[in-house]
Design a protein that fits this description.
Length: 68
């Protein structure tokens, strides 16, 4: 008869090669996700913008100071 604690201790012992493979997969996935995110941001930043914001305020006028 196996005790519950004995079963848990067996599950904790992992093969180092399996753990390394899982870490490598996780790092590759993270790198791929970061590249995808960067590409999306780059596309959004380089995307053409509309002609102008119809509700935006016009730029402030600059007036020339009188020359003395």
């Amino acid at each position: 008869m196996n005790l519950l604690s004995q079963n848990l201790s067996r599950e904790r012992i992992r093969d180092p090669e399996v753990e390394l493979a899982q870490r490598v997969r996780a790092l590759r996935r993270a790198r791929r996700d970061a590249r995808t995110r960067a590409a999306r941001v780059r596309r959004a930043l380089l995307a053409p913008t509309p002609a102008g914001d119809p509700y935006g305020s016009p730029p402030a006028r600059r007036t020339a100071k009188p020359v003395r």
